[in-house]
Amino acid sequence: MTNETLEYVHYEIDINKLTEEQLQKHFNLAIMKAGLRFRHALKENILFQRHMYKSQYIASAMIRMGEDQFNSSCPGFDFNSTKKDFINDTEKYFNILNAKVYIDDYSNFESLISEIMSIIYWFFPKFLVNSEKFNSIINVPYEEIFINNNIELARKTIIELKIKDIIQGSNIKEIINKFKTLFGVKIDIDEDKIKRLITISNNRNILVHNKGYINKIYVNILKINNINPEFDIDNELVIDYTKYQNDSKLLEEIGECIFSHIAENIKQIQHYYTNKFRE
Predict the structure, then answer these.
(1) Of 178, 144, 170, 169, whose CA–CA distance to 158 is shortest?
(2) Cβ-contact 24, 267 below 8 angstroms
(3) pTM for the full model?
(4) Distance in angstroms (rounded) separating the CA atoms of residues 227 and 134
(5) What is the spatial distance between Cα 190 and Cα 203, in angstroms, rounded to a whole number?
(6) SS (H, E, C) 15-70
(7) What is the DSSP letter of 213?
(8) Distance (Å, whole) CA 35 – CA 27
């Protein structure tokens, strides 16, 4: 990635003044920046995980070195109580941290999809309308027009509301399929990977909304998608390091697939856009 990509801000571009070639260039810059931000966010979580386990190793080594050496190295800490707390709380502590970065990784993945859709809508704004009539009504809060007096902010708000409407109430498989129905570009992902992605999405939901305890909704959603649940109802979902690593790698792989495919198929999007809104 170049500095040009890092510093690029697509919503500062007036698309009405761009040639077709310029639009393609700016579009790809915006998509590549979204991909770069996604990679960076996942990398930060990986580094955080490594630091967690390095800290665990250091703490374990300090406990093993014996009371006298511990007391001289760690003044102010009681050896016996520290050892007891370490033994009793370490596993629980790291499971909580694993769950946190697991949730963060999925949120980063969702943010990538939202940002890609936002970029498409910015460069191809007629996709925002629900019919082929160019004067279709799009609702936007009045304060964005009359109080903020910022047309750029109003445009961004319209796009955000549109994406919220698309994503709410849809599962992750349906959201990915919307790239085809809305923008004319099919994202091909192996069915087994889609099933795992659905599981990751529902793992995230159960961690956030039900404190990690499996409920009937979780089990039913997986079964509807022909996925065998790994846990029974009322079991606690525990995110260990291996599960985190495997699922994080899958999110990265699917994310890369989506933003690369969109960037490579800008001409297909343009063609679909032109035909859909041909006067």
Answers:
(1) 144
(2) yes
(3) 0.84
(4) 43
(5) 20
(6) HHHCCHHHHHHHHHHHHHHHHHHHHHHHHHHHHHHHHHHHHHHHHHHHHHCCHHHH
(7) B
(8) 13
Distance CA 276, CA 266 (A): 15
For residue range 145-163, list pLDDT tens digits in order: 677 667 777 888 889 988 9
Task: Let me know: does 247 contact 235? Beta carbons within 8 Å.
Answer: no
Whole-angstrom distance, CA of residue 188 vs CA of residue 191: 9
Nearest to 182 by CA among 269, 254, 54, 56: 269
Give the model confidence (pLDDT) of 180-234 as tens digits: 999 999 999 999 999 999 999 999 999 999 999 999 999 999 999 999 999 999 9
Average pLDDT, the chain: 84
The pair of three-digit structure tokens given for residue 232, joined into one six-digit string: 């029974």
Residue 98 CA to chain centroid, in angstroms? 16
Task: Determine contact, residues 35/112, Cβ cutoff 8 Å.
Answer: yes
Please write the tens of the pLDDT for every residue from 3-49: 444 455 676 777 888 888 999 999 999 999 999 999 999 999 888 87
